[in-house]
Design goal:
about 220 residues, alpha+beta, 5-stranded antiparallel β-sheet, 4 helices, 10 strands, rod-shaped
Length: about 220
């Protein structure tokens, strides 16, 4: 246990050292620096930290200064000693409990999902939901005006032509299932997987070819 030099009661050195006993207990050993200067090594019984106190060259003659160094060093350690190590299971549990569930995404799907933004994704079109799983990225939509559909809005001097919007979408936490293409006409929308979008493109191309393959003539 601690071996802290005591001060003869006949000497008044309260202005040199803290006369209070150390707040913690220590195991002490004595070593020497390469130059022969004695060093007290204290091992804290609470946290097992090592506190090394280099004593004055002659601890017998300069015992007041050496004692002051010991007390100051041990008092400084007592202020920062973390206490005994926690059991491994408790330390692990506390680490797992120290998780902040709040996500300050500020409308940015890259922060919400924790995934890198694709180069084609328009920040103003990020999909922000109540779950990172459904958060994602969308491209700027391509517009295809539709001549055979009633206008979405029309006035005396203008008309908002009916149109089809096509956009790439990516919900990164869903893996390949989150790679989709969105189609929107007016208030109607449809989302399909990329393989389905490619198949639809082939179907539309084939249907257009088929429609143009023969010209129907009126019967006489």
């Amino acid at each position: 246990m601690t071996e802290v030099p005591t001060i003869p009661p006949s000497l008044n050195v309260a202005d040199v050292v803290d006369l209070d006993a150390p707040a913690l207990t220590y195991d002490r050993t004595r070593e020497a620096d390469p130059d022969g200067t004695p060093v007290n090594v204290y091992i804290c019984d609470e946290c097992a930290a090592e506190i090394r106190v280099r004593l004055d060259s002659d601890p017998v003659i300069d015992w007041k200064l050496s004692l002051g160094k010991v007390h100051r060093a041990l008092d400084e350690h007592a202020d920062v000693c973390p206490g005994p190590p926690l059991p491994a299971e408790l330390a692990t549990w506390r680490e797992l409990c120290d998780v902040d569930a709040e996500v300050h995404h500020d409308g940015d799907a890259e922060i919400l999902t924790g995934c890198k933004r694709p180069s084609w994704a328009a920040p103003e079109r990020d999909v922000i939901t109540h779950s990172p799983w459904f958060g994602g990225f969308r491209s700027t939509p391509a517009v295809l005006p539709l001549a055979r559909r009633r206008a979405d809005d029309a006035g005396a001097a203008y008309m908002d032509r009916a149109h089809l919007l096509v956009a790439a979408k990516q919900y990164p936490l869903q893996g390949t299932a989150g790679l989709t293409v969105g189609l929107t006409v007016g208030k109607e929308w449809l989302t399909m997987f990329t393989a389905e979008a490619r198949q639809l493109a082939r179907l539309l191309h084939a249907a257009a070819d088929l429609a143009e393959s023969e010209t129907s003539a009126r019967h006489d």
